[in-house]
Design brief:
This protein is an alpha+beta fold. Helices cover 55% and strands 14% of the residues. It has a 3-stranded antiparallel beta sheet with strand order 1-3-2. Helix 1 runs antiparallel to helix 5 (56-68), helix 2 crosses helix 5 (56-68) and helix 4 crosses helix 5 (56-68). The two termini are 24 Å apart. The mean pLDDT is 93.
Length: 101
Amino acid sequence: MHEPNFDDALKALANPVRRKILCGLRDPAQNFPGQEHPYTLGVCAQRIEAVCGLSQSTVSAHLAVLHQAGLLTAQKIGQWVFYQRDEAAIAAFVRDLGQTL
């Protein structure tokens, strides 16, 4: 885990598609069904694209923003990239938000 960048996380969460992706990753098997690889690896970007119904480039951009903000981890295995919530980073962001406001 790396400490999330507070301002980047706020900007990332300002977008409803990114919030939907992050919320969906709470229960990946239910929200991103049909993945061949175990969900312990995370969710393949391709599954996220299929559920979002957006172009590959649009979803990739959203995932990059969430990852750069420190809210997601990314793991490349072969030709696939798997994404997971970084629960410790999310908890740190929520804590910081409570202290800031």
